[in-house]
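Below is one such record:
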Amino acid sequence: MKNDLVYLADYLPHTTMTAVCPHCLHAWAAVFPVTARELVCPFCGNVSRIPFGQPVVLLKKRDDTSNDGASMMKHYLGVIALQAKPMTRGEYNEYRGWSIPKDENPVDPGYLVKYSDSYEAWSPKTFFESAYFEMGEDPTTITPGMVDHFIGDNLQVSQLDEKTTLLSAKTITGFRQYETSSCVDPDNYDENMGREICLERVKNTVWLCLGFMLQWAKNGLRR
């Protein structure tokens, strides 16, 4: 359709490079005006800035003498801390002083995201909420409320034998943790008490893991 076409002659001079989204790591062949300051990832919809007007971080030239760069990539895991607030795509463009492109929906829900280095970007609501966990007002500590939220209410309790309780807790990441609690005398078996003991152990484990992640996000990797 004509509305889907972009006439490069209207955006001269332009350049082309292989762009890599810092949010979802999707790579694509990007063609954009040399005056562009931000790119929109066609896969996840995140808006990312081109630093200093030059594609030195988000964009990387393909080495024509080598094999496909994507096949040589390694997998990485990172943890970051950031600030964000709800903002539609149209509000973000207004915030940046831009006119929203005709092929973008200004009412798309999302978040204005601010990283620790004051770098700002826009992230679609679905992508953001599936990747980031709300901490609250204090970014320096793990709270009981955070632990409870991470565990959720997807708990399954069963009796393994005459004196043992099994608890299965499915966290919001989909990871399951199992804990057991046993009494000495079957006559003293109490499933509710066993449940509380198991749940407390689950909470302690999640608290430890969240603390580990917060330390990583705060200080990075110290090699």
Summary: The helical segments are 89-96, 125-131, 144-151, 191-219. Residues 35 and 53 are 7 Å apart (CA to CA).
